[in-house]
UniProtKB/TrEMBL annotation:
Transmembrane helix recorded as keyword: yes
GO molecular function: flavin adenine dinucleotide binding; N,N-dimethylaniline monooxygenase activity; NADP binding; trimethylamine monooxygenase activity
Name of the protein in question: Flavin-containing monooxygenase
One cellular-component annotation, GO: endoplasmic reticulum membrane
EC numbers, comma separated: 1.-.-.-
InterPro entries: FAD/NAD-bd_sf (IPR036188), Flavin_mOase (IPR000960), Flavin_mOase-like (IPR020946), Flavin_mOase_1 (IPR002253), FMO-like (IPR050346)
Membrane topology note: Single-pass membrane protein
Naturally occurring in which organism (per UniProt): Sparus aurata
Gene3D superfamilies: FAD/NAD(P)-binding domain
UniProt catalytic activity: hypotaurine + NADH + O2 + H(+) = taurine + NAD(+) + H2O; hypotaurine + NADPH + O2 + H(+) = taurine + NADP(+) + H2O; N,N-dimethylaniline + NADPH + O2 + H(+) = N,N-dimethylaniline N-oxide + NADP(+) + H2O; trimethylamine + NADPH + O2 = trimethylamine N-oxide + NADP(+) + H2O
Compartments where found: Endoplasmic reticulum membrane
Keywords, sorted A to Z: Endoplasmic reticulum, FAD, Flavoprotein, Membrane, Monooxygenase, NADP, Oxidoreductase, Transmembrane, Transmembrane helix
Annotated function: Broad spectrum monooxygenase that catalyzes the oxygenation of a wide variety of nitrogen- and sulfur-containing compounds including xenobiotics. Catalyzes the S-oxygenation of hypotaurine to produce taurine, an organic osmolyte involved in cell volume regulation as well as a variety of cytoprotective and developmental processes.
Enzyme class: oxidoreductase
Length: 594
């Protein structure tokens, strides 16, 4: 039975003070409250605290608004953007990027599901263009009015009546040190995991007496001050690869130290198309599942055709799909030109020398950059919610702590897969808000824990998970599993019957986020068009200098005569060959009769 709030009743309610307003509200809905207190509470607007205004935070705010919830986002810095906002100086406790960062995922893969990026933006955007796209999204859906900047979350704790209400006390601190505690019906944590640099100095004997300078890649901005230096970069993740390449353009020599190696992929795929748009369809996924070893072997063979990873000192022990690859367009060129030299793991430091595990030594090293990853931390959460299962947080489907009696806290964006994080975070937020509202339900705690533990075992078997890389998921299957929970998974068999053109795009084209807006809650009328026009947006940025097609000239009379004559001679030649063959066959036949 629905409840209708008339415009006149709202005006009446808002015209009185808070106490009188609430009494009027109770009187107006007293029959409903007496018959079903739970339904009464569910009819009231839920207030949701969103922590962090990066990409995950923005999608969470929008997911709340889509479900009729009331979000308040707390962002500790002075602007939105999270990781993609370049800081003039590194800010402790916040993510940081260097000036030259270009996103590894192409724009169609990392797009918001109901807000395609402008066609003129490059496929692999500079960080400033990613931030521009985020601002356009925030403005289009009026998200900024729900964000409180320069407000840090100090603690999140359950209210005394949490068992019955599921509510949380969120304590915040403003830039001038003023603290405030407010009560929220639900909380979404969107702080990411690139905030606390991992510096394993104890693993490098002698570093305390190293005569040069050393720092974590979190502090790196550009190559200024490294001209003519001898630099060692420790770690071969995406940051390590980028920084080694960039420094090598000005340094005397750069040595890139790696313990395990990495598969290197380029952003530029076959024919110049973004590489992540090729071989990432549902059909490709089917083949990978059907023939996993063969798929892995063929992909590695293709990568080694570009350059031999073993020859270049890059080949890892793990297969391609076991760990995220290094996305870098320039590293092979810097190695072949001698500007970057690959080295194994560092054994120790001796004065200004670096000793490697193979016994080789590099003397007179000026600078060491530790690109050794990040530790994840959620200091504002209760310790019980930071329990681990293996290396990962103890979260059901990487979102909900299963031990909570009320599913009113979710972690969004703490996830990695072979694809952009943005669509994963957006789908997590859509699911979380449906659960908050009671429109989607979670299994029992026992079932969630069993599934979580089973999922962790499988994840550790399939992927090279570590303390610094605790999570990796199968990109499309994970998206589909959450889409199933939300009710937005595309029905491809049905589409094959009703809209075969669209269905073929879903099957054979890249898995872009618009697929999850075709049906169900949050359905977007422009989703089909966005899918069918995605290649136009891919090609548009290349059209800055259109190369004219060569003019097709009609054949002259002489040309026609030459072509006809040539065809006639070819026919005669073939006919003669056939005739000779027939005569020889007849001769053989008659000889056999004699």
């Amino acid at each position: 039975m629905g409840v209708k709030v008339t415009q006149s009743s709202l005006k009446c309610i808002t015209s009185h003070n808070k106490t009188h307003t609430f009494h009027l509200f109770l009187l107006q809905f007293q029959p409903l409250y007496q018959t079903s207190p739970q339904l009464f509470v569910s009819r009231m607007v839920m207030k949701v605290a969103v922590i962090g205004a990066g990409i995950s935070g923005l999608t969470s705010i929008k997911a709340c608004l889509d479900e009729g919830l009331e979000p308040t986002c707390f962002e500790s810095s002075h602007d939105i953007g999270g990781l993609w906002r370049l800081k003039e100086k590194p800010e402790p406790g916040r993510t940081n990027i260097y000036q030259s960062v270009v996103i590894n995922s192409s724009k169609e893969i990392m797009a918001f599901s109901d807000f395609p990026p402008p066609a003129e933006l490059p496929n692999n955007m500079h960080h400033s263009e990613v931030l521009q796209y985020m601002r356009l999204y925030a403005q289009a859906f009026k998200l900024l009015q729900h964000i409180q900047l320069q407000t840090a979350v100090v603690s999140v704790r359950q209210t005394l009546d949490y068992a019955s209400t599921g509510q949380w006390e969120v304590e915040t601190e403003s830039k001038d040190g003023q603290r405030e505690t407010r009560v929220f019906d639900a909380v979404i944590v969107c702080t990411g995991h690139f905030t606390h640099p991992h510096m394993p100095l104890k693993d490098f004997p002698g570093i305390e007496s190293f005569e040069g300078r050393y720092f974590h890649s979190w502090h790196y901005r550009n190559s200024e001050g490294l001209q003519g230096k001898r630099v060692v970069v420790v770690g071969i993740g995406n940051s390590g690869g980028d920084i080694a390449v960039e420094i090598s353009r000005v340094a005397e020599k750069v040595y890139l130290s790696s313990r395990s190696g990495a598969w290197v992929v380029s952003r530029v795929g076959q024919g110049g198309i973004p590489a992540d748009l090729i071989g990432t369809s549902r059909m490709n996924l089917f083949m990978e599942r059907l023939l996993p070893s063969w798929s892995n072997m063929m992909l590695e063979k293709k990568l080694n055709k570009a350059f031999d990873h073993k020859l270049y000192g890059l080949k890892p022990k793990h297969g391609f799909f076991a760990q995220m690859p290094l996305v870098n367009d320039d590293l092979p060129n810097r190695i072949i030109s001698g500007r970057v030299q690959m080295k194994p793991n560092v054994k120790e430091f001796c004065g200004s020398s670096v000793v490697f595990v193979d016994g080789s030594v590099i003397d007179k090293v000026d600078v060491v950059v530790f690109a050794t990853g990040y530790n994840y931390s959620f200091p504002f959460l209760p310790a019980a919610l930071q329990a681990k299962c293996g290396y990962r947080l103890r979260l059901y489907k990487h979102v909900f702590p299963p031990a909570l009696t009320k599913p009113t806290l979710a972690v969004v964006g703490f996830i990695r897969g072979f694809g952009a994080v943005n669509p994963l975070a957006e789908m997590q937020a859509r699911w979380a808000t449906r659960v908050f509202k009671g429109l989607a339900t979670l299994p029992s705690e026992e079932t969630m824990i069993k599934e979580l533990e089973k999922d962790t075992v499988i994840m550790h078997q399939r992927f090279a998970c570590t303390e610094l890389n605790p999570i990796q998921v199968d990109y499309i299957p994970y998206l589909d599993s959450l889409a199933e929970e939300v009710g937005v998974r595309p029905n491809i068999p049905w589409l094959l019957l009703t809209d075969p053109r669209l269905a073929l795009q879903l099957l054979t084209g890249p898995c872009t986020p618009y697929q999850y807006r075709l049906t169900g809650p949050g359905k977007w009328a422009g989703a089909r068009e966005a899918i069918l026009t995605q290649w136009e947006r891919v090609l548009q940025p290349f059209r800055t200098r259109v190369v004219p097609e060569p003019e097709s000239r009609p054949l002259s009379r002489r040309g026609i005569i030459v072509m006809v004559s040539g065809a006639a001679l070819l026919c005669c030649f073939c006919y003669n060959k056939h005739l000779q063959g027939s005569l020889l066959s007849l001769q053989s036949f008659f000889r056999s009769l004699q």
